[in-house]
Design brief:
single chain, 137 residues, seven-stranded antiparallel sheet, 50% strand, Ig-like_dom_sf, immunity
């Protein structure tokens, strides 16, 4: 079982917006694909990188993937390298995250966010209903 997936990056700091979607529930061991649609900037813009992050119940945020679609490179966190697959589709301006053979340990709220390169910060993200975060890195 997986929790709902929503994420937004909003307007005060940037015109970039992200919106994640996917099933709100999934079966253990059946792969699950989440999608993040980007608006306000092409995902291939070299000023931005994109993150997939999750928060499990009662735990801290866990960084899953950092993607650089303008170069085709990505960094999957070592603890997730055999558990996820990530891709970018510039023609649809969206990112996808596939959770491979999920287990009960993968129950979490998953969200995507943008990272403005050279600024050393993640802008404003919202993960799930009413959970608003401002994060500085």
């Amino acid at each position: 079982m997986f929790t709902g997936v929503t994420a937004h990056l909003s307007g005060a700091l940037s015109q970039v917006q992200t919106e994640a979607s996917g099933p709100t529930l999934g079966k253990v061991s059946e792969s699950l694909t989440l999608t993040c649609h980007i608006s306000g900037v092409p995902i291939t813009d070299s000023s931005y990188a994109w993150d997939w992050i999750r928060q499990t119940p009662g735990r801290h945020l866990q960084h899953i993937v950092l993607q650089y679609p303008f170069t085709g490179l990505q960094h999957i966190a070592s603890s997730f390298q055999t558990q996820v697959s990530s891709s970018a589709d510039p023609s649809r301006n969206q990112l996808s995250l596939e959770v491979l053979s999920p287990s009960a340990a993968d129950v979490a709220t998953y969200f995507c966010s943008s990272r403005e390169l050279g600024k050393g910060r993640v802008l404003e993200t919202q993960a799930g209903p009413g959970q608003k975060r401002k994060e500085g890195v």
